[in-house]
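Q: Here's a chain of 335 amino acids. Please give me its 3D structure as tokens.
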Amino acid sequence: MALLEVLIPTYNRPHELAKCLRSLENSIKNLSHFDRSKLAITIRNNSTEYFEQYKNLIDTYNPIFKNFNISSFDYQFTGFNIGTVNNCVGGMLNSKSDYIWVLPDDDIARFDALSISIPVIEKYKPDFISGGCIDKSTIEYPSNEIGEDNKQPNKILDVIYDRSKVLLFLRKNVVQLQEYIYKVQLVKNFLKNDKHVHLLNDMWPGLFGIFSLQSEKSFVRLEKSLGIFRKGDPRSEWRHLWFKLALIDWPIISEKLFKLGWLNETETKVSKAVFREIFPNLSYRPDILLGLNKKSSVNPFLLIKYHRYHYFIALLKSPFLTFKEAVKRFKKYLK
């Protein structure tokens, strides 16, 4: 059984998966031969096309990972599109490892992601690890970089045992999936409880994080990222749904977690507000603020309910900023 499993959910993106696997290959090279045997890699393919490209990619990496002598390299094909959440949750339920790091197919592993994670797990046996607590790594989507980043090694920021760990987690982005390592048994405990499963939606990474922090065991925070987020995917549905997920769905989840006793009043207040920093960007999108954009599925009355002051400020600024942006684009077009 592996100590750490890298779970890679993929959907119709073999070209992006190739970059992800190349970054893992690079990261494994920084592991000692002994630590390589503690690592497993699992790909969960949820695709509806590109089957031949996926087969060729797996055939390429099978001997590479075998030569590294990692614990296992497993390729699981779901057979049809079961959705991102179900694909990830299914992989976690099937895991036989102690810890799991879910690395989306279009993100990449930082060069020292594995060489810091495995020693941290062995030394502290935490219930939850979060990378990127000071410095989050991002690259543009078309980039072919493989995860060297700034080549500055990651460090442990702190190891926390008391209740302060919940607020520290909430004050950072709570859905950066590529930054989190979960203890598998805790995830399975969550998923095997019928009272918890109804909470699942696209914000589940933060949900699992808060659940993991209910224990008295350690929460390890790392200064730099584990996974590098590739921003700007033109095909992503998240770019349309993000405002609803962050500004409506997450506050709703926060209220439910308060009722379950997982968050106290102060934590719930902070949790509801964690994404309000995106309101200035919404000033440029009156179609979303007013609920006119069908793709975003935003209900303006719920925006008012959870973010009254911030909503009205964004709405008041919207006419001026929208006009300013239109003039800017027109000038650019004339050039």
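Q: Can you summarize the key feature?
A: The chain has a mean pLDDT of 93.
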